[in-house]
Amino acid sequence: MAGRVSRLSVELVPSTCWWSNVRSNVSRAEWEVCKNFVKNRSGRRCEICGGRGERYPVDCHEIWQYDDDRQIQTLVGLVALCPPCHEVKHIGRAMVMGNFDRALRHLATVNRWSLAHADEYVAVQLEIHALRSTHPWSLDVSWLNVLGINPTVKDRT
Hints:
The protein is of the alpha+beta class.
């Protein structure tokens, strides 16, 4: 897989970070600011494939970076995603919901990969997820200051 650049990627949040995200650390009004920021920036189109959802045109997705040495989960941005691209980002949930094949096909189509390559890529991401899920993470959402939001991060313990 070396040398290939993907447009759509899988972003599996470590299980030790589930339920601790931007939305759980900001007020409802601040979350609306986040959603409106990506909707307006994107013209209500997916920033990866250009698509739109039927019920909701786009979802606000949090982009995380993981410092595996210091175990810090850092918010590095927000992106507008159509429901199919959002499902790929959370492909672990798609697996649980019985939608893995659909998500895998979308990943392959958007990135112009074979299904076999997409499946291999997902397998690597699942391995990374398993390793990252073995320890707790500190949360850094200071990126939200860009939007004028100064959240108080809730304790994960």
